[in-house]
Amino acid sequence: MQKTKTITGVLLSVNPHNAKAEAKIVTYRDCLEEMYQLIGCECFDCTPLKLGDQLIDAYVDDEGLMKEPPIALTYIGGRELAGNILLIGHDDEGNSVSLTKEQIDIISSVVSNGVSVFIMG
To answer: How far is Cα 34 from Cα 97, in angstroms, rounded to an integer?
Structure first.
């Protein structure tokens, strides 16, 4: 029986009622169901974010802009993303992997310096 790998990432939880974003380190089994649960969605997209000198994968709700208002848009890494954001790494073949300590430190720095959250609706 093959053991399911775990991935450590950062979940950026965004509150559409007070325009605040909170980051926490999460570890989950590498399966779609757990990613859906963390992000709070049924379908997600992955987009690359350039944070410092690191390229980090951001998983977001594919239907985030179609949700009932209010909708929170977070500006991070030069992109506007709707809803909660799961940040993880990838290997040379594009497989999901845990963030490195350096990547977690960069994310922590970006979040502690303040990410912009805008409310629509």
So the answer is: 15
Question: Phi and psi of 90, rounded to 5°?
Answer: -150, 155
Rounded CA-CA distance 53/50 in Å is 7
Q: Which residues contact 79 (CB under 8 A, 6 or more apart)?
A: 47, 49, 58
Asked if 31 contacts 102 with a C-beta cutoff of 8 angstroms, the reply is no
Q: Which residues contact 96 (CB under 8 A, 6 or more apart)?
A: 7, 30, 57, 88, 89, 90
pLDDT in tens, 19-46: 888 899 999 999 999 999 999 999 999 9
Whether pTM exceeds 0.90:
yes
